[in-house]
Amino acid sequence: MKTVVILTMPRSGSSLLAAVLHRLGVWMGKEEDLKVGKHLNKYGCYENQSLIALNENLFFQSKRLVDHSRRLIDDDGLVKSVVKRSEEKIRNVFMENERDLWGFKNPTIIYTLPHFYHLLTNPHYIRLYRDPGSTAHSFLRTARPENWWPEIQHEFSYFTFRERIIIAFRFLKLLLKKGNLFKNYGFQKKIAEDGYRRIDRFIKDKRHISIHLDELLYDSEKVIQEIISFLEISPPPEQIQEALNFIRPDLISD
Fold first, then answer.
1. Which CA distances in Å does 198 have to 23, 60, 207?
2. What's the rounded Cα separation, in Å, for the pair 126 and 5?
3. 119 is in which domain, residue-wise?
């Protein structure tokens, strides 16, 4: 069994990479799950919804969901304690999804993963990197007003009515206290830079490969062969071609 985990930051091309892995034969979730999130990505976000819901709830309980600035700190110990309390639930979600070759992506999982990666079976990590400035610009682009309502509906689907009220209250409190950090380029770039540093620290002693988004877009054949070699898989030529055909620069927002 192999567990393939994409590690990156939001708006860095993880949906594209997850779609490529899916076409190469890695089980990334139910078909209906993969198409969720078309308001952000044309063909969906290719995310296993049970794993997304799990991480979103860990974020909610550790107060990292709304206030992104809290993702820059670890000294309050909240993430670690929440993950520890939720370990049985995390283990059960993994057991429900495990296949001989399966994987998942969640662009914010680097904040919680260091506290539960020991529950993964034979993990193979793929580090996907995008310039933090480009990541920040893309994040701001998707934070436009026309995306607010579908994103709220998308996010709220993971929570109970009571939790939604708490989230809304926390968001209003954040706006009054810190202003709209979501629209601050410098802050979003700082979040991306910090996230990539966390990823680099995490994977340095683990089985992994690193891919730059530009390589995936413009040197696709080489990158796909690297992935195939890393995962030690033998997809048929038609699957490889399907993966190559899916990769298009226009799928990535500037």
1. 29, 20, 16
2. 6
3. 2-251
Q: How far is the C-alpha of 130 from the C-alpha of 146, rounded, in Å?
A: 25
Query: What is the percentage of the chain residues whose pLDDT exceeds 70?
Result: 96
Residues 71-107 have pLDDT tens digits of 999 999 999 999 999 999 999 999 999 999 999 999 9
Question: Looking at residue 39, what DSSP letter applies?
Answer: T
Q: Where are the alpha helices (DSSP H) in 10-77?
A: 14-23, 31-34, 49-61
Decide the pairing of beta strands 101-105 and 2-7.
parallel
User: For residue 21, what is the domain's CATH number?
Assistant: 3.40.50
| CA angle, 171 then 172 then 174, to 5° | 65
**Total domains in the fold of the chain:** 1
**What are the tokens at 181?**
């950090």
Half-sphere exposure of 80 (CA within 13 A, CB side): 6
225: left (phi over 0), alpha (psi -120 to 50) or beta: alpha
Helix crossing, 220-231 with 14-23: angle to 10°? 60
Contact 78, 63 (CB under 8 A): yes
Taking only the tens place, the pLDDT of each residue in 154-185 is 889 999 999 999 999 998 888 887 766 667 88
Q: Which position has the higher pLDDT, 251 or 2?
A: 2
pTM, full prediction:
0.93
Model confidence at 44, in pLDDT bands (50, 70, 90)?
Answer: confident
Q: According to the model, what pLDDT value does residue 104 have?
A: 97
Q: Percent helix, strand and coil across the chain, each rounded to 5? A: 60, 10, 30
Widest distance between CA atoms in the chain: 55
